[in-house]
User: What shape does this take?
Amino acid sequence: MTEDTIAAVATALGEGSIAVVRVSGPEAVEKIAPLFRSRLDLREAPTHTVNYGWIEDPADGAVLDEVLVTVMRGPRSFTAEDVVEISTHGGIVAVQSVLELVLRSGIRIAEPGEFTKRAFLNGRIDLAQAEAVIDLIRSKSNRAFQLARRQSEGALSKRIAPLRQKLLELLAHVEVNIDYPEHDVAEMTAAAIAETCGIALQEVRMLLKTAAEGKILREGIVTAIVGRPNAGKSSLLNALAHDNKAIVTDIPGTTRDIVEESVSLAGVPLRLLDTAGIRETSDVVERIGVERSRGALNEADLILLVLNHHEPLHEDERLLMKELAGRPAIAVVNKIDLPGALDLEEVKREIPEERIVFLSAKEGEGIDRLEQAVSKLFFSGGVESDDLTYVSNARHISLLHLAAKSLEDAIAASEAGIPIDLIQIDLTTAWEQLGEIIGDAVGESLLDQIFSQFCLGK
Ligand code: GDP
Ligand code: ZN
Assistant: This one.
């Protein structure tokens, strides 16, 4: 299938001083060459070279920008097609005018995700890897970035492939048994089917177990900081932001006009709930009081209840602690640099001791203990593990659930003595469902849906 040639700005618009126009397709070099004035003709440039020169409008000879042009001939390129990347350095106006010139030369503007889609269609990467590219672009923390990077390198695919191979071998044996029932060499007993399916099922369940952790790494822990006025909520936020060289970002909400604040703790993003005013003197939490902080409490994955070590418990705090029973909450006893007046025994009656952390937000002391407590609460095996084969993509998770169900059905059927040609159906289904994760035999509409999530130029 011959594709046309596409182009888009591949760097974030309006950010940084260098912008890249990426061109991919069979005519990439041929169409860009006439626009590029340099010592040598781009058509003669060896592959994987960076060439210095100017982008010039051939119509009137006007110079648009001084550029570096990289040539990567397929298949050794991201899309496996011929790729030309024009690095402009004149800011947004220059890059736009270069792109316009490129498009005028008969190259089509790329759809969002089209470069990655081509990489997939040309067999450069599988679907799980392509989806990881989306996650890479969107990752909010270091660890989420690592997770996505590993997946884009095929970590999940590497675990799915042998699993499918096992099922395929089993299917082949079943097939032989159905076709040649007299063939006694490879007799496929129900017990053998149950055993292989059992092993596969275990692996699928293991991958599913990582899903919750993967989701957290990718999307962050939705966190509510609650407590009485003056307990030190704002100070805690600042300490978190400071001590962890946190990414404190203001992300304008896409649907509502709210500001989301995100700090990083132990490499995990904490997304602070409803924090538009948290840095001001009148915190949202303070204003809404105990009654209305319930809403925030219900939405949160993590609740940090800040208590003041320097003062006795207040009735509001007693109520809050009762609210928190059975919730993923940590009591932060703040101001330990000051003499204690808080009744710790009463706190311990409401909140398990391993969920009570003592610190001084003002002195920045004990933040590491809070880090450990959060890690323990969310990551059973510890986040430090190098094995970051987390499943974090909703589509993968639902397919793994379906595959688990098919394998369970196959096991139940073989144990119930159902004929193997019927069990074969469940096996085939499981094999196909796992295949969909890596993009074996997925329909065009699903592909469109996946790749349309990309930003332009990827
Ligand atoms: P919020 O109302 O809960 O947000 O509390 P703030 O963070 O605004 O802090 C209230 C007051 O307590 C401020 O004067 C802070 O400087 C002080 N404070 C906060 N944390 C500490 C701490 O760990 N030690 C001491 N001594 N003072 C603190
Ligand atoms: Zn405050």
